[in-house]
Amino acid sequence: MNIVVEDFHKTYDRTTAVSGLSFAVTEGEILGLVGPNGAGKTTTLRALAGILAPTRGRLAIAGHDLALEPAQAKAALAYIPDEPRLFDQLTVWEHFRFVAAAYRLADWTDRAEALLEQFELVEKRKALAAELSRGMRQKVAICCGYLHQPKAVLLDEPLTGLDPHGIRTMKDSIRELARHGTAFIVSSHLLSLIEDLCTTVLVLHRGQKLLHGNLAELRKEISASGRQETLEELFFRLTESTEPPLTVELAEP
Q1: Domain residues of the chain, as ranges?
Q2: 3-state secondary structure (DSSP) of residue 121
Q3: What are φ and ψ of residue 53, in 5° steps?
Q4: pLDDT-derived band at 245, boundaries 50, 70, 90
């Protein structure tokens, strides 16, 4: 398993952000993480990235426990938050050089050139980050995340700021890396993106898991029930219910 979450709890004083969350993401799997604001999505991603320490539970990346082997776990991971954090006074190419040094990469320039080409940043290689548009900054952050060829990638609202061509490139890049074994968690409010791109889905609500399973199996379950329901309609039915949370586990991905 490239990503493992076991009995993850995160509390802040008397507030529980995530309670008893367990799931795993295998090689080549693209997991869609969805839920209303405050459901615990970003808390989960930040904990997996090693930014937040869990109150309880075990988190692992590529077989490395984040509590016991944080350096090895983070070396196998890329986390791209919803707001790109770049160095304003570094150029695009200098960002690549910085990442290469941080991860101690050898022979990284050809891959960096290919990423510049793929994400249409060739003409921006000497531009300062402060001069870039929101969409261009997003592309640079994505390229920096991909440079060290991580085994697991965490994406929080990855399409923010991208134009239609950039959106297609981003989606194609996720599918391509997944085919080569990279595990993805894609957190987004765009349920159409989740339905189009992801192989599995995990619905969180009030810090708890409501549904987790393979999207193809989910569609079969919906069809067999006689309902004509989109992922969006299912999402609202689950998250707007006044009943206590009911966890639904479908077939293993």
Answers
A1: 3-76+150-249
A2: coil
A3: -90, 135
A4: very low
